[in-house]
Write a structure and sequence with these properties.
The complex is a heterodimer of chains A (about 200) and B (about 270).
Chain A: H1 2-16, E1 35-38, E2 43-45, E3 54-58, H2 64-71, H3 74-83, E4 88-93, H4 105-115, E5 121-124, H5 129-134, E6 138-139, E7 142-145, E8 151-155, H6 174-183, E9 198-199
Parallel strand pairs in A: 3-4, 4-5
Antiparallel strand pairs in A: 1-2, 1-5, 3-7, 6-9, 7-8
Chain B: H1 3-10, E1 18-20, E2 24-30, E3 41-49, E4 54-61, E5 68-72, E6 78-79, E7 88-92, E8 95-101, E9 103-111, E10 120-131, E11 135-146, H2 160-169, E12 179-184, E13 187-192, E14 200-204, E15 217-221, E16 224-230, E17 240-247, E18 250-259
Parallel strand pairs in B: 12-18
Antiparallel strand pairs in B: 1-2, 2-3, 3-9, 4-8, 5-10, 6-9, 7-8, 10-11, 12-13, 13-16, 14-17, 15-16, 17-18
The chains are: A alpha+beta (about 200), B mainly beta (about 270).
Chain lengths: ~200, ~270
């Protein structure tokens, strides 16, 4: 007797689901779990970071939009500041083998050193599963997940779609605002924005 | 040194009208051969892309940047917005971007005041993003110089065909028959009361509404067609649907109110 009732409930719930695309995660819902290997060979499960704020940063160092944030030290500064506050920062590379931006782990290690990157880990998503699950479109494309595992921000790093490093002073950093608000226990005031950058090379 | 030569030496060098890049050559092309004060003129920014490279539309889609023109004009001159030709879709599953490959001209109308000194220098700083699998920012400082006369401006015959071809690529202002948009589960339905198109695609003007990489299903209906446009994750439904509908290769400007989904939640 319970089963038909449950499926009716499930149907009712489906009908209430807001309009959404086939790919991509919706802010306010649970962030999809994943396990990926990092550039050092260690495995990272998103679920193992429950209780902490997590940032996912889609990255491709050769992309001029990403370069703007690494050449100016903006990205490393954000990584250092917020990992210093106990947050987990995961850079994710979804470039497929043979596509631009796909590198062997030792090459990635050298690139990380050269940039003094300060993320908690650099994850290799070569088959693009995690990128597709999150609907990662660009590098950079940023996601923030709260301590309960709920997605609280998805979008651009800031409001300045540009490759010009002289454009860095002045932009509103959506990610920084989201993290400051989340750390202060507040609701994120701008939970979504349009990501900008190079396409993820699936 | 003669006074004329001295003046020439002191005058700042005029930027070129064409800058050749590795992947993109940018040129500023005035449609008319001269300026008549008080009459507007049309300036084309021509971008010629190397094979496989493209630049972007006003909504670049999932990635990229729209081409940007920053004008430097004499006092009293005013440049209008870019008239964007109908874009193409560049799909790399699961993503897609919108723009132009090969050769495109972006038109801007420039209004001139009643009093104009001759010659007139129209200069522009142009920024674009050029991509194939990799992307590079491109920029150029361009200028053209035009004489001012009291005669009606005539089109420069060298560019007549390029301007005619470009105008043919601009979206038409009137859609084929009436259009209506309604919100449904996961997307927007655009209905057209025109003979069913064999293929159709809607290019949204704003970047945060449509899942650019998703297919749009075209269904013939009695007296027209229905196009299902999947919305992007986290997209908020706007009051109106704005963009360009391409039906059988012809672009049409679209600006129609979106009828909200009915309270029962059913797709209509």
């Amino acid at each position: 007797m319970r089963r038909p009732f449950l499926s009716l409930m499930a149907l009712a719930a489906l009908a209430l689901v807001p309009a959404r695309a086939r790919g991509g995660v919706v802010v306010g819902e649970a962030a999809p779990d994943f396990t990926l290997q990092d550039s050092k060979g260690a495995k990272h499960a998103l679920s193992s970071y429950k209780g902490k704020l997590v940032v996912l940063e889609w990255v491709n160092y050769e992309c001029p939009f990403v370069k703007r944030h690494y050449d100016t030290g903006n990205m490393q500064r954000l990584q250092r500041t917020y990992t210093g506050k106990g947050l987990v920062w995961l850079s994710v590379n979804s470039s497929a083998p043979g596509k631009q931006g796909h590198f062997a782990p030792d090459v990635v290690e050298a690139m990380l050193k050269e940039r003094k990157a300060a993320a908690s880990a650099y994850l290799l998503d070569s088959d693009g599963t995690v990128g597709r699950a999150y609907g990662a479109k660009t590098t950079p494309h940023m996601f923030v997940i709260d301590a309960s595992g709920e997605l609280i921000y998805a979008g651009g790093i800031d409001d300045k779609p540009s490759t010009d490093s002289t454009d860095v002073p002045g932009p509103k950093s959506y990610v920084q605002a989201a993290l400051d608000e989340a750390l202060a226990g507040k609701t994120v005031s701008t939970p979504t924005s349009t990501p900008y950058g190079c396409s993820v090379k699936y | 040194m003669s006074a004329a030569l001295l003046l020439l030496a002191l005058a700042p060098a005029l930027p070129p009208s064409t800058v050749r890049g590795v992947n993109v050559t940018a040129s500023l092309i005035p449609e008319q051969a001269w300026i008549r004060p008080g009459r507007s003129l049309v300036i084309g920014l021509r971008l010629q892309m190397a094979p496989e490279w493209h630049t972007y539309w006003k909504n670049p889609g999932d990635s990229g940047l729209p081409t940007r023109i920053r004008w430097t004009l004499p006092q009293g001159f005013e440049a209008g917005p870019i008239a964007w030709p109908t874009p193409e879709r560049f799909a790399t599953n699961p993503l897609a971007s919108y723009g132009y490959d090969q050769d495109v001209m972006l038109l801007s109308e420039v209004r001139t005041p009643a009093q104009v000194g001759s010659p007139v220098v129209i200069a522009a700083r142009v920024d674009w993003l050029e991509c194939k699998d990799v992307c590079r920012p491109g920029k150029a400082e361009l200028a053209v110089q035009l004489e001012v006369t009291g005669n009606d401006p005539l089109p420069d015959p060298r560019w007549a065909k390029a301007f005619a071809d470009t105008r043919a690529r601009l979206p038409r202002s009137r859609p084929p028959g009436s259009l209506a948009a309604s919100a449904g589960a996961g997307g927007i339905t655009l209905r057209g009361a025109a003979p069913a198109a064999r293929d159709a695609y809607f290019f949204p003007a704003r970047p945060d509404l449509v899942e650019h990489g998703a297919a749009q299903a075209l269904t013939p209906e009695a007296g027209g067609f229905r196009l299902r446009i999947p919305m992007a994750a986290n997209a908020k439904l706007p009051d109106s649907l704005e963009g360009v509908l391409v039906a059988d290769g012809v672009g049409f400007e679209v600006a129609v109110p979106i009828r909200p989904r009915d309270s029962k939640g059913g797709a209509r």
